Amino acid sequence: MQTPIDEMTVEEARAVAGAPMTPEQRAAFERDGYIVVPGVLSPDEVERYGAVVEATFDADKAAGDLFYNGGMHRLCAVASCPELAPLADHPGILGLVWSVLEWNIQIAHSHIDVNPRVDEPGPFHYEWHQDGGRQNRELENNPRPRMSVKAAFWFSDVSEPGRGNMKLVPGSHAANRIAGPPSRDVEWPDPPGTIEATANAGDVVLFDRRIWHARSDNLSDVVRKVVFFAYSYRWTITRDVFPPDDGSFTPVQRQLFGMLPDVDGDHAWGHFPSKVPLHELLKRADLLSTLAPPPPPPAPVTWPC
Ligand SMILES: O=C(O)CCC(=O)C(=O)O
Ligand SMILES: [Fe+2]
Question: Are 72 and 58 in contact (CB under 8 A)?
């Protein structure tokens, strides 16, 4: 059980809140639209949460709920597996998230993915996208605002390409558009500048929702295992559903999972910071002063065709 925030020492609060982004991480995140954070999870954590991910896959497999290619894409990670809740406010990633989005945040979307080797790729489907759905049509400006960031917690070794790594184009978060096929079933090459982000088990890939990215088939014998959490502002609506509050969640998890009591629009607006656990945690940790307005948006880019 976590010490109540108002009883924490500064050191305890800092351990829970996580460290702010370093200037180097921030510069890389703003320039490239993503960073790979090594060793966020200890080997014990990789084993513990990895076992939960595997058990979910085994259950879906036994129930005949896998995709045609043997893969699992389970939405709402915490409702599916409450044991994964500690990933959402893991101190190794939380500090990076509040450095970018500040304290009035929630989980916007989450999923658990397990993908064994794909022996026969299905019909071509152009997977490249920015996250945020209608945000990419309904918001003005070039580039459009960031709105959310997403963390991919890796439980399998994707330190080599071809293992179901995330494909992405560094710097493309500054591009509202990339050239693409007339419809998603028309074969089309990856955009110029594509890389496969590599990571070891326990690493996190943190990305700006605007970066152009795509899933890739796992062509290896290493079963791909990854859990995604997207973070957005509490004044937007979440795509996730969450389990009932059974008293087992930390204050910050309860905020992230929409479990705070008496929440109305004003609360979500951020009018009552003292009732928002992450605000109180940062205050207790004496870290509020590290928050700074976001840097100017990147210069818009027209991605080469
Ligand atoms: O599975 C992947 O590699 C990418 C999934 C994705 O597009 C996302 O999580 O936003
Ligand atoms: Fe995505």
Answer: no
Q: How far is the CA of 71 from the centre of ligand 2 (A)?
A: 17
Q: Which ligand is nearest to the CA of 214?
A: 1
Q: How far is the CA of 95 from the centre of ligand 1 (A)?
A: 22
Mutational pocket test of ligand 1: of 34, 67, 72, 113, the residue with most ligand atoms within 8 Å of the beta carbon: 113
| CA 157 / ligand 1 centre spacing (Å) | 16
Atom 1 of ligand 1: nearest residue by CA position: 215
How many CB atoms are closer than 10 A to CB 184?
13
Ligand 1 binding site (Cβ under 6 Å of any ligand atom)? 113, 131, 150, 166, 213, 215, 228
Contact 37, 93 (CB under 8 A): yes
Beta-bridge mates of residue 113:
73, 226
Ligand nearest to the CA of 130: 2
> What domains are defined for the chain?
5-290 (2.60.120.620)
What is the CA(98)–ligand 1 centre distance, in A? 21
Residue-by-residue pLDDT tens, the chain, 305 positions: 899 999 999 999 999 999 999 999 999 999 999 999 999 999 999 999 999 999 999 999 999 999 888 999 999 999 999 999 999 999 999 999 999 999 999 999 999 999 999 988 889 999 999 999 999 999 999 999 999 999 999 999 999 999 999 999 999 999 999 999 999 999 999 999 999 999 999 999 999 999 999 999 999 999 999 999 999 999 999 999 999 999 999 999 999 999 999 899 999 999 999 999 999 999 999 999 999 888 899 999 887 65
pTM: 0.97
